[in-house]
Amino acid sequence: MIAVSILNRLIMAVVTLFGVALIVFVLLRVVPGDPIAMMISPGASPADIAALRAHYGLDASLTTQFGIWLKSVLIGDFGTSISLKRDVLSLLGERLPATLELAFAALVLAVLLGGAVAIVGTLARRTIFEPVIDSLNGLFLAVPDFVWALALVLVLGVLFPLFPLSGRIDPSIDVQFATPFYLVESLVTLRFGILADICAHMVMPVLALGLPLAAIIARVLKAALSEAMVQDYILLAKLKGMSDLRLVLQEALRNAVGPTIALTGVQFTFLIGGTVIVERIFAYPGIGNMAIDAVINRDLPLIQGLVLVFGAIFILVNLAVDLLVAAFNPRLAHG
């Protein structure tokens, strides 16, 4: 059953990506603005404009343009960036790892912090500390990631300059990486000085992305734990002499984690989308920062490639979440 479900989802993923590609392709060509006019010199002749338009395939009909572009994408050719004059696929390969490392670091922070707050809140239920924890969590939940980013810049970057304000690594560090996954590579190769510098550059963007997600996880998991704590099997375990902490960690948590994983996966896709603004604020060299520049420059091939990458990430995350939910729920795994 799981194999059939995965196959159906993969088929739907292909259909979804095709629909996303079609919609984005059409929208980019019907909105006002000419990318050729933005990149050519003011004194260019009509012949020069026509030649450049033909070079980028913008002189053909819309259906012909889409057919040519789709055929190229299927063989791994995403075109050439109009603004950066480089292959789109190579640009995505350079920038995507930075965004993935940032997003997964924020996810780890959110899961650990949100889970801890939910467990503490469950243990403190029916005490004076429960409304305090809920109120603080509600405050964190109400503040969006870009506001956290601006506040962190002001506090940890200006008032108390503890962490770098921009970039991914200190430019003065002369080091060659074999892969674009700087954090993972420096950890695997045991270059702890470089690892510390990379982590220092990631602290503020990770906090900005992770704190709102942590608040969501804390609220959902605490509600699920509170519901589980009044079930009969919990009361029976309590009669056997189990402490509240063991009841939460050993009995209630495994039954409450399923819905939390499902919501966390959905929110993680929004977190990846939130990297666009956060990366811009911290000048972090990921695909989110590059997406803003691509939109400003009307770089059609780059925008199309970025949208396809975001769409693929969202689909893969949702598929992974469904598998995790099934793994934590035996009824779904065998159903």
Automatic annotation (TrEMBL):
Residues 96-325 form the ABC transmembrane type-1 domain. GO terms for biological process: transmembrane transport. CDD domains: TM_PBP2 (cd06261). It is a multi-pass membrane protein. The keyword RNA-binding does not apply. Keywords: Cell membrane, Membrane, Transmembrane, Transmembrane helix, Transport. The chain crosses the membrane at residues 6-31, 102-126, 146-165, 177-196, 202-221, 306-328. This is Peptide/nickel transport system permease protein. It comes from Rhizobium miluonense.
